[in-house]
Amino acid sequence: MVILGGGFGGLVAAQTLKRASVEITLLDKRNFHLFQPLLYQVATGSLSPAEIAAPLRGILRHQKNVEVLLGEAVDIDPAAKQVILGDGGVFPYDSLIIATGSQTSYYGKDQWRENAPSLKSVEEALAMRHKLLYAFERAERAESEEEARAWLNFVIVGAGATGLELAGALAEIAHHTLKHDFRRIQPHEARIILMEGGPRVLSNYPEDLSAKAVEQLKTLNVEVMLGAFVTGIEHDEIHYKHGEVSGSIPARTVFWAGGVTATPFARKVAERLQAETDRNGRFKVNPDLTVPGHPEIFVVGDLALSLDDKGRPLPGVAQVAIQGGRYAANVIKARLKGKTLPPFKYFDKGDMAVIGRAAAVANIFGLHVSGFLAWFIWVFIHLVYIVEFQSRILVMIDWGFLYLTFSRRARLITGELTPDRPLQEE
Asked: 219-245: string of b/e by CB count within 10 Å (b at 16+)?
């Protein structure tokens, strides 16, 4: 069998088949598993990339039925049951698990990507860190108050969990981490704006937790603009429409935390399989997570449009991918024994979003928690799910220092600079 993607879904699927009589080829365009929920901490200088990533070969080195290979799938041949790589490699399969994840959606405005980086990869996180820290450096050298203000205006588009996490971290950087680092500017005067097109933040959370989140954001002096739709993003300004009023904000630092969409590979696969997808490119899968008409092909994680007991689409979060990957692997194990399994049923453990130091909201098994307790639960759960033990220890130490001192050790501006703005990471 072939597994495409070494993220949460693909990795768990491979590990679940550890003792099964199958030969597994795990293909990924990266040689590491990335703990994506903490990617924003790389972008804001709290953690280094190596602390939230682990080499796939190292993770699976003791699993003898797995071969880990580096390569990017670009097409499949369902008739011949083959996966085709960008470098021309061809891999046959009897069963195929597609867990390649999604990419950021700019809602048809991909030209905004240049001026508003998103947060789906290590490279994007480093580019975001570069842009964030560089803004304070340029504000220190500004020749006028107006120019300094433009550099110290930070706009985050999208008020889901990632948007709130970025906004809270940015506020702590401005008010605490960089408090005494500059001589000409006052970092705490930075204006941090969280812009959301919907009527509330964390739209998938209960309304009371959304309200609590806004309260905690305001405590950190984050401005929350609801019902505001972006109409344009330039390198020094963002344009928006708020109700019937159009406006703009001079801002050289804009971060995108909007929605997601399918990758070109996923759309190619859907075309090959003549599979039905939703507007975001997610596959409408069978109850056993297979593609209709192709019982040998499973789709898990962000690319699968699965429904819960109430007929609502499951969210694109790590827990859905983990449980989906484990279920797909168990279906394959059952087939080897001539058995079948009941349909996939997602066990919802709840949702949580961290906003800052001792500030978070959580919905755990229907129990609504906010503040320090929610933050503590968030810390514990994320430490548990980090793959390597060594990384857990390093992250725990870094978080301890961050909690006590607001110090962020990874405040490094990497890459080359141009006279007025940073280059993207190579």
From this structure: ebebebbeebbbeebeebbbebeeeee
From the CB of residue 316, how many other CB atoms can be counted at a distance below 10 Å? 17
CA distance 293 to 285: 10
Distance CA 251, CA 225 (A): 15
- Residue 344: predicted pLDDT: 96
Those residues with Cβ within 8 angstroms of residue 12's Cβ, 6 or more apart along the chain or in another chain: 321, 322, 325, 326, 329
pLDDT of 126-143, one tens digit each? 999 999 999 999 999 999
**Residue 263 contacts residue 283 (beta carbons within 8 Å):** no
Asked if 188 contacts 170 with a C-beta cutoff of 8 angstroms, the reply is no
Q: Give per-residue pLDDT as tens, 281-329.
A: 999 999 999 999 999 999 999 999 998 888 889 988 999 999 999 999 9
The pLDDT value given to residue 24:
98
Q: Which residue has the tokens 């085709």?
A: 84
State yes or no: pLDDT of 15 exceeds 80. yes
Please state the rounded mean pLDDT for residues 95-108.
95
Q: Is 165 noted as a catalytic residue in this protein?
A: yes
For residue 87, CA distances in Å to 24, 31, 171 come to 20, 16, 44
The average pLDDT across 260-265 equals 94
Structure tokens at 195: 């812009």
Kindly report the pTM of this predicted structure: 0.91
Q: Name the catalytic one among 165, 172, 196, 425.
A: 165
Q: Fold for domain 2-29+71-102+262-336?
A: FAD/NAD(P)-binding domain (3.50.50)
Of residues 325, 289, 269, 314, the one with CA closest to residue 99: 325
DSSP 410: T
Question: Which CATH number is 110-259's, of 3.40.50.300, 3.20.20.100, 1.10.1740.10, 3.50.50.100?
Answer: 3.50.50.100
